[in-house]
Design goal:
The structure is a homodimer. By secondary structure, chain A is mainly α. Chain A has seven helices and three strands, in the order ααβααββααα. Chain A has a three-stranded antiparallel β-sheet. In chain A, helix 3 packs across helix 4. The longest helix of chain A is centred in the N-terminal third of the chain and has 27 residues. The first copy, chain A, binds a DNA duplex through helix 2 and helix 4.
Chain lengths: 149, 149
Amino acid sequence: MVSTTPTPDSRHPDPLTLEVVELIGEVVARFHEDYEAAAAEHSLTGAQARLLSLLCLEPLPMRRLAQRLKCEPSNVTGIVDRLEARGLVERQPDPADRRVKVAAATGEGRRVARSLRESLRFAREPLAGLSEGERVALRDALRGMLGAV
Amino acid sequence: MVSTTPTPDSRHPDPLTLEVVELIGEVVARFHEDYEAAAAEHSLTGAQARLLSLLCLEPLPMRRLAQRLKCEPSNVTGIVDRLEARGLVERQPDPADRRVKVAAATGEGRRVARSLRESLRFAREPLAGLSEGERVALRDALRGMLGAV
DNA sequence: CCTGAATATTTCAGGTTGTCAAACAACCGG
DNA sequence: CCGGTTGTTTGACAACCTGAAATATTCAGG
């Protein structure tokens, strides 16, 4: 009787699945709130914070930035403009292809990004309230969700 | 020795916590993508879809809408304006207080919201790939995260 | 080498979201 | 009745986002 996963048909979800969906929605909402708030503390918008965080890992051409952020390249132009005006990012020419401009975080940009990462409390603090077993279970379930698609 | 949760200090998170944070970030990103895409299929923006979904549960005064959406009331005015122009929402006078206007979903609005909810596949389809035990574990961990704050 | 297609970036126009301050109407306590 | 508070809207402004057009550069073929 333990056997068959009780067919959580995605068209007729069972109550358990519905509750999990509800909970995920709440987590998503809180995560966003927290992210925007952390960005605002550094006088950044959410979009600016995301872009700066990306560049903090490695410099990227404008085109790739747009792909990572899932938006149009013309949009990235403006965001980089504003970050560049504040000295957090700079455009560098690509020696291999004079069409492309590589955006890179400046030293100050990296400093701000690090500070921002540290003020991102949600998804870390509440995790501290979980036992190791729960965290392992959470990890496995999340892996399953992301891998299943 | 079972006692103390192995101190996942939020300033020096262990690798397990870091991975979970990473996974949550991915889930949040996918959830948002999916939500925006589902909204776009119905020619709605994310904000419009969220507001319409709220009104689909119960009519709400503008003020409360702003609280639920965590934004300024003046912002809600515009979003309701656009939804009202499309006949998905209507403003009704509150007989008890002539200052307040209650926004309510129209029949068409409810129809669109239902259709939207059904096209929201992420957070439901991948869940189907989890065993019942995993879904229970996920539920408990999420509850713990949300409650712990 | 030259031409034309393709690519990377920017610019521009237009729409949506969001804030803040100010206006306005209606409520309410004294 | 009066003054302060509350709910909604309006206006000005900034950021985000898209789509189309302009520009510069690369690259493949003839």
